[in-house]
Amino acid sequence: MELGDALAWLDRHQNLERMLADTRLATPDPERMRRLMHVMGDPQQAAPILHLTGTNGKTSTARALSTLLGVVGLRVGTFTSPHLERINERLAADGEDIDDADLAEVLSSIAQLEPLLGPDTHLTWFEILTAAAYAWFADRPVDAAVVEVGLGGRWDATNVGDGSVVIVTNVGLDHVELLGPTEADVAREKAGIVKAGSTLVISETRPELVEIFEAEGPERSWRRGRDFDVEANDLAVSGRLVTLRTPGARYEDVFLSLRGRHQADNFLDALVAAEAFFDGPLDPGLVAEAAATVRSPGRMEVVGRQPLILLDGAKNVPGARTAARAVDEEFGQVRSRILVVGMLRGKDPREMLDALDATRARVVIACPPPSPRAIPAEEVAAAAVELGCDAWSAASVADALDEALGIADPEDLILVSGSLYVVGAARAALGAARR
User: Fold this and answer.
1) Distance (Å, rounded) from C-alpha 278 to C-alpha 115?
2) Is the omega angle on the peptide bond into residue 119 within 30 degrees of 0, that is, cis?
3) Among 56, 70, 40, which Cα is nearest to 146's?
């Protein structure tokens, strides 16, 4: 198939957006994914897997980990989600997204195999894309695969692979409609990716939650605070200056080319995972190279000047609070702010707006994310008005950006946030440079 035909075939399969928009549809079945992998020759066994879960920070950590493994000299496959502008972004090798021809080829091969699973087996969109990643990584081949969980962990399609290193960034309340009403429930679902013989790198610090992950029986467990920590985390031009303590070493005065205090935590998680993978510390010069070159689009990303345009895909209340703190620390001198915001169902607009410090914005322009789970922009705008904001709604992300740019002064900051789907649409509308 050509790429257009392959993507049309992929889109005929159930995906998370439709699944959560229509609760009558069934949740993913791991047995279905295991059968698909067996038919494909079990490509998930071709290379060691470093498996990531957590409520926030997974993609930035995955990108940092891939960069660290790459500077050491490994060929690295990276599977992340969601994408911002093109589906190709989800599958990368050696820092480059899969090209159209390879994506079409690997999807076509799965389309040919799907009938072998039987007429009663219906693969999901994410299962197919996960299988495509494992198959593409095996064919290249890669030396290691950095794989980000799509949702939760235990029942996630990526969990057909056994991670030799498992990274847990944090645990918070998100996707509670599938993962459970409490943080302990969420932790139990995420802990399902911890396998016997693995090294657990856990940045969540609450003992009652850490115990849930350690109960899965990893060979060793490295805890944040006890075994590794951020010892210094200072603002620098276009990034941070950090000192990191790991189980194997202490890395001093490392420039990290990512904005936001929280990115030091993400980079630390990646560094500790790399040490676990190599079973020892990394060369400080290579760590400095990785830290200075790592990129994470859509996360505290500056895409315009005069006015300053900042994209951050904060998708839940903890992420929104983190984004607001980062804006204060890094851009607190900006005269005034304009907030362009859209959200998905399952979020409380007032809580999200409050976490984003919406009342400090001169104007809030609400817009709908390009998703069947979008909260109507009018509902978000009404919540902003209830908080005391000057707010209105726009028909699309592109329209909201046009309106924001139309009223912004050169010294203003336009923050686009609330969902990675909003950020992706904003990047496309603004013509932001590709990675």
Assistant:
1) 41
2) no
3) 70
CB atoms under 10 Å from CB of 431, counted, come to: 8
State how beta strands 229-236 and 96-97 pair: unpaired
How far from each other are the two terminal CA atoms of the chain, in whole angstroms?
A: 27
Whole-prediction pTM value?
Answer: 0.92
Residue 141: cis peptide before it, omega within 30 degrees of 0: yes
Q: Checking DSSP bridges between strand 363-366 and strand 391-393, what pairing results, if any?
A: parallel
Concatenated DSSP letters for 221-261?
A: EEEBTTTBEEEEEEEETTEEEEEEE-SS-EEEEEEE-S-ST
CA distance 342 to 377: 7
Domains of the chain plus CATH, in order, are 3-293 (3.40.1190.10), 301-430 (3.90.190.20)
Beta strands in 122-190 (DSSP E): 144-148, 163-168
Of 385, 378, 387, 373, which Cα lies nearest the Cα of 422?
A: 373
* Model pLDDT for residues 259-294, shown as the tens digit of each residue: 999 999 999 999 999 999 999 999 999 999 999 999
Query: Distance between CA 315 and CA 271 in Å, rounded?
Result: 25
Cβ-count burial 47-63 (b if 16+ within 10 Å, e if not):
bbbbbbbbbbbbbbbbb
Closest CA to 232 of 205, 257, 258, 250: 250
Q: Would the pLDDT of 212 be above 50?
A: yes
Q: Where does residue 412 rank: exposed (0-12), middle (13-18), buried (19+ CB within 10 A)?
A: buried
Eight-state DSSP code of residue 413:
E
36: helix, coil or strand?
A: helix
